[in-house]
Amino acid sequence: xxxxxxxxxxxxxxxxxxxxxxxxxxxxxxxxxxxxxxxxxxxxxxxxxxxxxxxxxxxxxxxxxxxxxxxxxxxxxxxxxxxxxxxxxxxxxxxxxxxxxxxxxxxxxxxxxxxxxxxxxxxxxxxxxxxxxxxxxxxxxxxxxxxxxxxxxxxxxxxxxxxxxxxxxxxxxxxxxxxxxxxxxxxxxxxxxxxxxxxxxxxxxxxxxxxxxxxxxxxxxxxxxxxxxxxxxxxxxxxxxxxxxxxxxxxxxxxxxxxxxxxxxxxxxxxxxxxxxxxxxxxxxxxxxxxxxxxxxxxxxxxxxxxxxxxxxxxxxxxxxxxxxxxxxxxxxxxxxxxxxxxxxxxxxxxxxxxxxxxxxxxxxxxxxxxxxxxxxxxxxxxxxxxxxxxxxxxxxxxxxxxxxxxxxxxxxxxxxxxxxxxxxxxxxxxxxxxxxxxxxxxxxxxxxxxxxxxxxxxxxxxxxxxxxxxxxxxxxxxxxxxxxxxxxxxxxxxxxxxxxxxxxxxxxxxxxxxx
Length: 516
Ligand code: 3UK
Fold this sequence. Notes:
Layout: E1 8-9, E2 15-16, H1 24-33, E3 40-43, E4 48-50, H2 51-67, E5 75-79, H3 84-95, E6 99-101, H4 109-119, E7 123-126, H5 131-140, E8 145-147, H6 148-156, E9 172-178, E10 186-191, H7 194-204, E11 214-217, H8 224-237, E12 240-242, H9 250-260, E13 264-267, H10 269-279, E14 291-294, H11 301-311, E15 315-320, E16 327-330, E17 343-344, E18 349-353, E19 366-371, E20 378-379, H12 383-389, E21 390-391, E22 394-403, E23 409-414, E24 419-421, E25 424-426, H13 428-435, E26 441-450, E27 456-464, H14 472-485, E28 494-498
Helix pairs in contact: 1-2, 2-3, 2-6, 4-5, 7-8, 10-11
The structure holds 5'-O-[(S)-[(2-aminobenzoyl)oxy](hydroxy)phosphoryl]adenosine.
5'-O-[(S)-[(2-aminobenzoyl)oxy](hydroxy)phosphoryl]adenosine (3UK) binds near residues 178, 341 and 397.
C-alpha cells in the first residue's frame, strides 16, 4: 500500500513529514478518501466500528473534550479499558491538539494520584470498572473527571466535524508513563511523528502488516506494545483490530482467535506459557494466524519450539520500550532465531557499549543503546532522568545485550534492579515497601527468580521482627497484602525467611547477592 500523501522514508529510513500536519490525518481521516468508510476498523464481541463511524466519533470526541474546557496542549488522563472509546478519546484528543495520557489500568489509587498531579492533567476519563481506585485518587488530587459512559453520552450531542489542529512532526503528541526502579513513574513525551515511524518500520516493513490483516493483541492498549499492535498498526494500514476488555487468559485469547480469526496475534511470554499449558488439554483452532509476536520480556527458546510444534506458527520475539514506543530489535518471518531478540529493525541504530561508553569487542556483553526516530523527546518534569537516559540523540535502554556471530542480539538482563513480570515493569523497591508495612516484618528484599517456564517472577526475602515466626500462614498474609495494596501482578510468588540481609557499608541492600 502506498504511503499517505506527504509522507516518505528517505536514506537510512528517516521519515519525511509535512512541516505542519496532524497525525490523526494519516491514521484516521485518510481512510474515508481511500474508500474504507464501510470497512471494519474495530471488532469486539459487542460491536463492529467501521472507519466511517470511527472518523465521525473521533471528531465528536475531540469536540466534546474542547467543550469540557480543554485547550490545545492540555493533558487528558484516560484510564480506559480496551474498547472502541479508547480510540475515540486518544485520536479525538490528538486531532484537537490535546495530549492523551493512557496509563496502566492495573494500578492503584496512589499511583493515579501521583500521575494526576505530575501531569497536571485537566480532565480524567475512566472506565467505570476502575472507579474504585480512580475516585480515591481524585479525592487526593481533585481534577475534573467523568466516566467513559458519561463521555460517550456527551459525545452524542457534539458536532461530527473537527478541523485538525496543525503541529510540527516533532511537537508533543501523547505521553506514556513508565516505571523506574526507585521513585515514581516517568511520563515519556512522544511526538507527532513517533507512531508513523513505529507503524511503518516495524509494523509494515518487519511484520508486513497490510490492509487484509486482522490484528489481535492480548497485550493491552495502555502498554506501548499493545498500543502499536492493537491500534496504530491496524489504523496505519487501514486494517482491522480486535479488542477485548477482559483479563487475557488462555480461554479468552483462544476463544477470540477462533471467533475473530485474526491473522496476527500479539502476546507476552507469561501468557504464551499459560496458553502452551492449556494446549496440553486439547487442540484449539489457530489456523487463521500467519504470525505471533512476543515482547515485554525475553521469550525462552524452548517456548518458541513448543509453540511451533503445537500450532505450526512462529512466535517472533522483539524488544521494545515505552521510550522507543515499539520494537527496535526483532525477529521476522524471513529471519528468526529462537532464544534471541533478532536483529535491529531497519531504520533503528543499535550499539553495545562498555561502562566508558566505548563499543565492546565483538561478541562481548555491554549496555544496549539505540537511536530511534520514534524515541520519546524527554521525561516530563524529570530533567535528571532525561539527561541520564537520553544522551546526544541516543537512548540508554538499561539492558545488557551481546551479539552472536551471525548478528542476532541476545538479552542478558537488566543493568538496574527492575523486573519484568508478565511483560510489565515491577519495581523491587515498591514491593519491599509494601512488605515492611506488615507488623511482623522488619526488612525485606525483592529479587527476580525464574519460574518453571524460566520466566522471572518476584521473590521476597524477609527478616522478621521476631525471628523464627515465618510460616505458611504468614506467607499467605504477605502475598495477600501485596495483592491488595499493589497492582496484583506485583505480589511475590515465593517468600523466604532469613535473619539478615546482605548490605553495603552504607546500608544499601545488595539484591544481586540474593538472586536465585
Ligand atoms: C524489557 C525485553 C527481553 C527490556 C515494550 C514492545 O516492554 C516494552 O516496554 P517497557 O517500557 O519495557 C522495556 C524493557 O522491557 N523487554 C521488552 N521486550 C523484551 N527484554 N526481550 C524482549 N523481547 O528490559 C526493555 O528495556 O514496558 C515492548 C513494544 C513496546 C514496548 N513498550
